[in-house]
User: Fold this.
Amino acid sequence: MFPLSFDVNGEVVEVPVTALLNGGYAGRSQEDVAAHVAELAELGVPAPTKTPCLYPVAPYLAMQADEVPAQHERTSGEAEWALVVAGPEERDVLLTVACDHTDRALEVHGVAWSKQAGPDVLGRKAWRLVDVADRIDELTLTAWADGEVIQRGTLAELLTPQFWLDDLRERGLLKPGTVLLSGTIPMDAAVDQFAGSWRVELGDPKTGDVIACEYRVSRMPEPVE
Assistant:
């Protein structure tokens, strides 16, 4: 298993991923959660029985990639932040940007299945969570699909990193090698999500610092069967 590698204030931190989890329906505002449920319902995705959700994903799907192969044209990303547990101490919890690339055609049969059909693309830079914890709600999250802004908001719209750290601790998963993605913010329905390229940025208005991940989507050859 290849480790993820992060630039943390000039220090290279490598993290072999042992557990990968995707949060879902994780908005702090129930109105935003309902909007996301309605957005997915238009694609035929059944509503969850409870929120937030947590989907375990195969660890090898955590990638720092420039290209995502797709089996068909109905796949798309989601702007998210990610927690990366890089060691045993509080200062070892990293915060970075992520894009959960999801198979929307498979999603109508099961959200958990769809999460296994595409990678979680993470940024190559990260911040220590303790360094930004006092202004977590001010951090921004923006996504572009084929160069058009499709998602824009702040981390105040999502459940906090501390919420998920507490949840991981209760589940016995708060240990080195665990990566958790936050869930996403609403999309602009006027922008085509089935794009050939995605870019997501996590920004800190106080410092002007930005962490980005960006990739193109490539169609795989048709199966021979």
